[in-house]
UniProtKB/TrEMBL annotation:
Membrane-spanning residues: 12-30, 36-56
InterPro entries: TM2 (IPR007829), TM2D1-3-like (IPR050932)
Source organism phylogeny: Eukaryota, Metamonada, Diplomonadida, Hexamitidae, Giardiinae
Full protein name: TM2 domain-containing protein
Cell location: Membrane
Lipid bilayer topology: Multi-pass membrane protein
Keywords (A to Z) from UniProt: Membrane, Transmembrane, Transmembrane helix
Domain of life: Eukaryota
Main localization category: membrane
């Protein structure tokens, strides 16, 4: 079974940014671990980074969602290929010989 990853919401990102952005919550939400840890340790780089993220949030969400869509498409392709392989193997072992 294939598990697909969900996309992130710009609304949720802005809520996290507004209330917990100094601690990097919005960056943790978007799985930007290195900068999230920097935000956590520096208070959003002393408020300046927090303010800059007001404008960067849409781009970060779009980038995350694009990556998720690509990963989901790859997972679907792998799952389809895996099912085709299993179907070919089962037919090979169960189908009558062509002799």
């Amino acid at each position: 079974m294939v598990k697909f990853e969900g996309e992130k919401s710009i609304g949720t990102t802005y809520i996290l940014w507004f209330f917990l952005g100094l601690f990097g919550a919005h960056r943790f939400y978007l799985r930007r671990w290195p900068t999230a840890i920097v935000w956590l340790l520096t208070g959003g780089i002393f408020w300046i980074g927090w303010l800059v993220d007001l404008f960067l949030n849409p781009r970060m969400v779009d980038s995350y969602n694009k990556t998720v869509q690509e990963n989901n498409a790859n997972a679907m392709s792998i799952a389809i290929n895996d099912q085709n392989t299993k179907a070919n193997i089962s037919c090979f072992s169960e189908c009558a010989p062509l002799v």
